[in-house]
Design goal:
4 copies of one chain form a homotetramer.
Chain A (H helix, E strand, L loop, with lengths): L11 H8 L1 E9 L4 H11 L3 E9 L6 E9 L3 H19 L2 E6 L4 E7 L4 H11 L5 E8 L5 H6 L4 E3 L7 H14 L4 E4 L8 H6 L4 E5 L11 H8 L3 E8 L9 E8 L6 H24 L3 E4 L2 E4 L2
Parallel strand pairs in A: 5-6, 5-8, 6-7, 8-9
Antiparallel strand pairs in A: 1-3, 1-4, 2-3, 9-10, 10-11, 12-13
Helix pairs in contact in A: 4-9
Amino acid sequence: MSINTQVKVNSKQQQKQLENRGCLLVKCPDKPGIVSVLSTFLHNHGSNIIESSQYSSDPENGIFFIRIEYHRENLLIEKENMENDFRDIAAAHDMEYDFSYRNDRKRSAIFVSKETHCLMELLWEWQNGDLDTDIVVVISNHEDARPIVESLGIPFHYIPANKDIRKQVEEEQIGLMDKYEVDLLILARYMQILTPDFVRHFESRIINIHHSFLPAFIGAGPYERAYERGVKLIGATSHYVTNNLDEGPIIEQDVERVDHRDDVINLKKIGRQIERRVLAKAVKWHLENRIIVEGNKTIVFH
Amino acid sequence: MSINTQVKVNSKQQQKQLENRGCLLVKCPDKPGIVSVLSTFLHNHGSNIIESSQYSSDPENGIFFIRIEYHRENLLIEKENMENDFRDIAAAHDMEYDFSYRNDRKRSAIFVSKETHCLMELLWEWQNGDLDTDIVVVISNHEDARPIVESLGIPFHYIPANKDIRKQVEEEQIGLMDKYEVDLLILARYMQILTPDFVRHFESRIINIHHSFLPAFIGAGPYERAYERGVKLIGATSHYVTNNLDEGPIIEQDVERVDHRDDVINLKKIGRQIERRVLAKAVKWHLENRIIVEGNKTIVFH
Amino acid sequence: MSINTQVKVNSKQQQKQLENRGCLLVKCPDKPGIVSVLSTFLHNHGSNIIESSQYSSDPENGIFFIRIEYHRENLLIEKENMENDFRDIAAAHDMEYDFSYRNDRKRSAIFVSKETHCLMELLWEWQNGDLDTDIVVVISNHEDARPIVESLGIPFHYIPANKDIRKQVEEEQIGLMDKYEVDLLILARYMQILTPDFVRHFESRIINIHHSFLPAFIGAGPYERAYERGVKLIGATSHYVTNNLDEGPIIEQDVERVDHRDDVINLKKIGRQIERRVLAKAVKWHLENRIIVEGNKTIVFH
Amino acid sequence: MSINTQVKVNSKQQQKQLENRGCLLVKCPDKPGIVSVLSTFLHNHGSNIIESSQYSSDPENGIFFIRIEYHRENLLIEKENMENDFRDIAAAHDMEYDFSYRNDRKRSAIFVSKETHCLMELLWEWQNGDLDTDIVVVISNHEDARPIVESLGIPFHYIPANKDIRKQVEEEQIGLMDKYEVDLLILARYMQILTPDFVRHFESRIINIHHSFLPAFIGAGPYERAYERGVKLIGATSHYVTNNLDEGPIIEQDVERVDHRDDVINLKKIGRQIERRVLAKAVKWHLENRIIVEGNKTIVFH
């Protein structure tokens, strides 16, 4: 990573290709012919399906989910037209759906506290051109991350926080989210609890990294409790934030082997490596519109 | 596993469901509208798509591959009709394709030598109802496996083999393959080399397990050579057999960690665990028609 | 695995080597000079240290644990002498200790219910000569496992069980444990709860396999609950049984990746593979005297 | 990671503890009593063994290796004395040995080319206090890494390199190695070949990261070749550099799963994650004196 350096810019040709890439997510009652309807619609609108993944919760009377990535010449010009034409189809089949475009990069905010390893990983992926987002602001209740964030030309806001001033802190945070027009809020080891109001404001748009293999060790001090229990693997979990602490829909999890010689300090060191990669994967999949939340679970189309 | 016991039989209802399951594999030049054509065809023939996976080797001028699993009432009666109707579509789009039916179980033969761990794993999966095949014959150049094989009611043929009598051994083997109408030949640590003629006879229908992480340690003595080289992981590779030794299309690979304390005997012990699961996975995917061979590679639709 | 076949017998030379192998486990207050005392004792008694692992819970005022494997000519003749001489050393340094001999194979009993995959794995390892134990009896509340167990020449006892007759069932089981002089009791998916009295009778000598990544999903139905929670990895845990359900000292854990497509049936299939290998490892380490239980944790010397 | 910031400094108390930590590596012909001799020596010199690992290449007539980490009050004052006293013991038992002290931090140089991910990982670990070394200089044939390196206060030297000027480049590099008194040279994706003279100069002190699972794909373009071969796992290997290209003693390896959809660009992205962690582990173990090179293999005492 070099500081004061722009994110790797794709070549003009690559950009041209990406601006003609679209993604359609659909959820509807399962019945025969859905794939035919969707693929025929896209074909009639000059689109070529590049990637398609589907899932049915139950062959009989289940819910059908599909993610289609397609290429269409002059997509930016035609997309409004396509979306309009899709309305009747959606209504006829009772579809919930979402059109998104590679050219419309999501705008991300990162919240962080003292530990910066998850922030660093995201910045590193972003600089490599591997996170398809604009990181528009970093907010922290500590000053530690300021130098690296500002060196990359990203606005950094220091907002001290504690439970007594939570309401006023969140107002300030929401103000910044609005100002920066944030689509996705990433909690990269932000160690403050968010109020139900705040969470509702950003429903299904907050991704957290929890430093345990959920549902083991919900809540505070997971490494300390993993040590006490004598587990032989420790893990980390990225999930969407809901108002049930650490119980939101899980996006990704991973583990590493530990043994009796690993004290809590070591568990935290090993854990940092897991947290970094688990959060980065979850964020990447969200940005690529690969995740559908269904109830308290996620469908992740790899 | 209990001996003298039939494979777990699915309930009548399950069997009914399975007999209406079909799978269509297609390979053709990529162009817009292929998914639409296929899904519309299936819908028009009363079929509901249950699972679909696709892959395009290149967005422009590439080759398109798709696997579709579908459900259709009375499939066994209608399938001939469907296949007939598909011919025009296939011709129009230059498709190679394959229709298969869950009800038509593939017939497998297993070749084994002295080491029976891979055979045992396959028999275990098969008895659990997790390998969707009829194991119609086991052939070995040793007698070790006879008791367990025969206790399961599977014919066992002992055919001693060495390089001087290869031709006549293979004639006998081919005779048995024909007699038992074998669709898939599994080399479960069969330690004899097959002649080009034999391999050609069963092209893309022989799965082997090689006891190394290919392309490292091609040929004989891979564990000995892994030990000499001081690698920190050992592996196993399942692949289709071609006439280039250990260079056929790879289906699955896996590894385990080892260290300086592991001598060759230990490497072999650890390796047996890897070989067992890697071969079982490859066989299962083949039986579920999840694999397309393209050039010297496989596309595996999980 | 071939039926009606003896466990692979080591060559006479190997047996000769093994009968001169001993293992010494020591636990004592940590202080300088312990390793010197122990290694000098062994050297003075003609023993050569082959493998040694140690662990100190805390560099200052901690507890010291060591496992030493050694070779001594004529060990079987000299061992009583050595053990006698060691008493003074142990007293002087406040040591708890255990001498064991490779030649004295532990006697194992296996309890199993309807699902036989863990039993099968143990029998397979045992037949390969990889489990250094005599399996002296298998007890089950179902008849499923009888044919395979008896075909290997191992006594099989069918004892139907349910919570109303628990006391009398356990009396019968304890009677058999005594009769067969059992050192280790392996619960290979035995689905009955054991009473506190029974557990106390075999303290630190019962190994269980729990079909979840503990402490997640303690108790019944872990795969069902893992499915409900939408976890992305499932696991299994082998542990010593105590009178706190699923809370005994953990010996080994492992996980496999799953995704939204895996229903409960699939989770169980995948889980069976994890359970098999996790239980087999734990049993092997116990038999090799590699495990020291300390509080509610294990120290496992690999 | 924050720029312009010093590496996390351990508290005075921690430093005090570390300055009394020593490590002794010994290699000698195996015979009874070696552990006794060494542990008694350390005890007599007031040292308490904290961690000890040993390995014997063969129980009979093998070579014995041991790593002992110990604590001794006033070690920095006593160490010369201890080393002197050890000479007779070493001579009597034909030992090769090495005393090292946690207080004497090794001095590392990093060579890097255009790809900075491995460099970044090392800097990140170092800033977290997890790499026990002084990074005294970074040398590159590109300017990319200069800003981040200099922002951390580490000297950066740009030395353009190509095969025509190799001799003069290496003279300059050796000059800098001497000037900065470098103990360890880390090739963090340095894409130039080193001459035999250069390698000899730093025997067993150069660690490289090769971007494949050696011995598969020795030499250039490993990801391209992995793609061509259709492997299902890709890997990375850290090893000591010798004058046989990519054939030096392996320190650590790891792999990640890939599939048919991963093109070469993707393999490289996935590979970067493996390279980062594999190199960081190898460097850490070297710095902690956990590695003994024996022939073309490593013994790594974890």
